[in-house]
Write the structure tokens for this entry.
Amino acid sequence: MKLGKILAAAGVTVAMACGSALATPSTQIWIPSPDVKDFKAFHIDIDNYTRFSTKDSGNNGLNSNLYNIGLSAGVLPLENLKLEVGVDFLTTGFQRDTAADNHPFYGNVKLGTPENAFGIKGLPAFAVGAYNLGTYDKPEAGLSTRQNIVYGLVGKTLPVIGRLSAGGYHGSARALATPGNPGTTNNNSGVMASWDRTMNEISDKLWLAADYMSGNNANGEVSFGASWAFSKQVSLVVGVVVFNPFYKSSPGDNGINPGGKPALTTQLDISLP
């Protein structure tokens, strides 16, 4: 099931603004999932993140809403080893709220195996990939959209409980730097974890999920949400993303959370054919 997605929040400086996007592979609510698209499966995602605050509420006016249109497809004709690639167009709504709006295209790629692959009963799903692959990197201008986050995940579905997945990530120290956490503070790596489950007791169209991403950068978060499948081709995710809920501000942050204020997300997923 293809689910939610997207973006990292705008920060307070141009350097933080470069971290204002997640180019999204198959995801849970925010982080990547162990799922990888089947060969010739094509997906369109229309996502938005609406802040629970005004644009000028904290973060020096950069609490902008975020919008994404993503295209992705499965490209490997194998049953037990799958590969998907994608591209996203991400913007704050053509308001030029951040310098990254001038460079709105991001790429992603994911390679993985499904559960019970190669006829091995009980084998977890495995996935490795990269996202937030931006197109602009000019240190002299103080802007980089190349977060280049590389990650690995393991996922296993358990009776009654649902699916649990966990892994880690590493990204560009410069692109993920913030005033309170510069590139020398190792804020460019962390853990990812999630839970998701189709609620068959209620309806096989209802899916619930929660996920977590550590790291004192624009991507750190806790999120939760639900999806309803209107058909095999169309589903809608509604959720909440709370950025860096355990973040402790330092004098360099000036009281600002690197991810910004929490957001309500809606994610319309359309599968073709």
